[in-house]
From TrEMBL:
GO biological processes: cell redox homeostasis
Coiled-coil stretches noted in the UniProt entry, renumbered to this chain: none
Organism, scientific name: Atta cephalotes
Active site per database record: 44 (cysteine sulfenic acid (-soh) intermediate)
Full protein name: 1-Cys peroxiredoxin
UniProt keyword annotation of Oxidoreductase present: yes
Gene Ontology terms: cellular component: cytosol; mitochondrion
Family annotation (InterPro entries): AhpC/TSA (IPR000866), Peroxiredoxin_AhpC-typ (IPR024706), Peroxiredoxin_C (IPR019479), PRX_1cys (IPR045020), Thioredoxin-like_sf (IPR036249), Thioredoxin_domain (IPR013766)
Protein's UniProt keywords contain Electron transport: no
Swiss-Prot/TrEMBL keywords: Antioxidant, Oxidoreductase, Peroxidase, Redox-active center
């Protein structure tokens, strides 16, 4: 299992787009690796179709996406036709790779297996809906695990990428329900004097403790 801030494993895997070596495939991009429980299932079909629609947005953010399930490349190729039909996707080529992991080597390495979700034919556990975000230095910056019965919200995943990219560039943190363009908080590690030299429009919220940690500034705009 990989922890936040650790270098993500440089695995080799087969996909319907050929064999990839993860770090080489990522190059200088950010990456999202997301797993799903099974090919030919309804919620997974909606998710993979939504990711196809979001590819221009991911490109704008400099993010490559790759999916994974414990099915074969042959199964992925057949299922892709369903995803394209459901998502009304035009064009021949499916725009991102889906990793095959029938042996569950990667799903085990990455802690994706869901003991509550078992293949009805083999009795083997399937992968949960995991999301890993990896930065251009190949470090894991976020991981979330959802159960099979709850489809993911990819607007939230885009929001997370926007927050990660902003907070990597500036010493700020994004508050609850933040959206791109909203005000942000100055990172608690920044001293008041350093904050004053960097920002001239700090709103400090007065609190009963008398502490001045709620320092709000407009989002830096060139992010
Ligand atoms: C689905 O993708 O619809 C699904 C997969 C496994 C269990 C439940 C739902």
């Amino acid at each position: 299992m990989v922890l936040l801030g650790e270098v993500f494993p440089d695995f080799t895997a087969d996909t319907q787009m050929g064999t990839i070596r993860f770090h080489e495939w990522l190059g200088d991009s950010w990456g999202i690796l997301f797993s799903h429980p099974n090919d030919f299932t309804p919620v997974c079909t909606t998710e993979l179709a939504r990711v196809v629609k979001l590819i221009p947005e991911f490109k704008r953010l400099g993010v490559k996406v790759i999916a994974l399930s414990c099915n074969s490349v042959d199964s992925h190729r057949k299922w892709i036709e369903d995803i394209k039909s459901y998502g009304e996707v035009t064009g021949e080529e499916f725009p991102y790779p889906i990793i095959e992991d029938q042996a569950r080597k990667l799903a085990t390495l990455l802690g994706m297996l869901d003991p509550a979700e078992v293949d009805s034919q083999t009795g083997l556990p399937m992968s949960a809906r995991a999301v890993f975000i990896i930065d251009p230095a190949k470090k894991m910056r976020l991981s979330i695990l959802y159960p099979a019965t709850t489809g993911r919200n990819f607007d939230e995943i885009i929001r997370i990428i926007e927050s990660l990219q902003l907070t990597q560039k500036y010493k700020v943190a994004t508050p609850v329900d933040w959206k791109k363009g909203d005000d942000v908080m100055i990172d608690p590690s920044v001293s008041d004097s350093e904050a004053k030299s960097s920002y001239n429009n700090i709103k400090t919220v007065m609190l009963p403790s008398g502490k001045t940690y709620m320092r709000i500034v407009p989002q830096p705009l060139d992010a």
